[in-house]
Amino acid sequence: MGPIAATTIGILPARWGSTRFPGKPLHLIAGKPLIQLVWEQCSKCSRLDEVIIATDDPRILSAAEGFGAKALMTSPEHPTGTDRLAEAARSLAHAEILINIQGDEPLIDPALIDELAATMAADPSLDMATAANPLDPADPAVQDANVVKVVTSLDGRALYFSRSPIPFFRNAVDGLPVMRHKGIYAYRRSFLERFVTWPPSPLEKAESLEQLRALENGASIKVLLTHDTSPGVDTPEQAAQVEAILNSHTAFS
So what's the pLDDT on residue 249? Predict the structure, then answer.
């Protein structure tokens, strides 16, 4: 019998406690829990061998199993979704590539997830892959500290992530947009296992951006250009906006 083929697994961290929106994963949008809508989008992917919901709450676990998802209980003590991902990965010994998909993006484009998976599979030198979409330098989001920006090398690998506007345009450069980072990550399993053993790094603590810990430790992170600007759900008001989109039939097919 030959070796087991490397697999790619999508994991949706789903935490009950949220300062702004407790119980968010089970909030009903267009008649379905938020986490179910995300799971359904992920289930359309062609390059994920499995999709798993990793949660810290039995209510989410029960709901997930109720709509047919595979779900795992993880510790409620994890400081970040990456730590929750790493705990889930420990029970998935066959997984080589793990994609951390935000559990609050019900309109996430399955094609973007597939592209991340394909990128990681095609280039073993990559530790991680993520995505970003272009912003006009005049967009107010450029100045918004809640919008994370990223700059890359000429071959598309991340150089730096920041809450500040980057790059600073002392000179206009044609074809160089500001890039808004999209919080989806693909990890090589071996790298993820190392990453969660490292303490928070200086730049990570300064900007409150966990991905800087990876860069400060020499990680190679590919940044895919995407035009997927699907909104996330951080508040009940945003949930209502997503419901309006779904009800107007403009969501991804």
Answer: 62
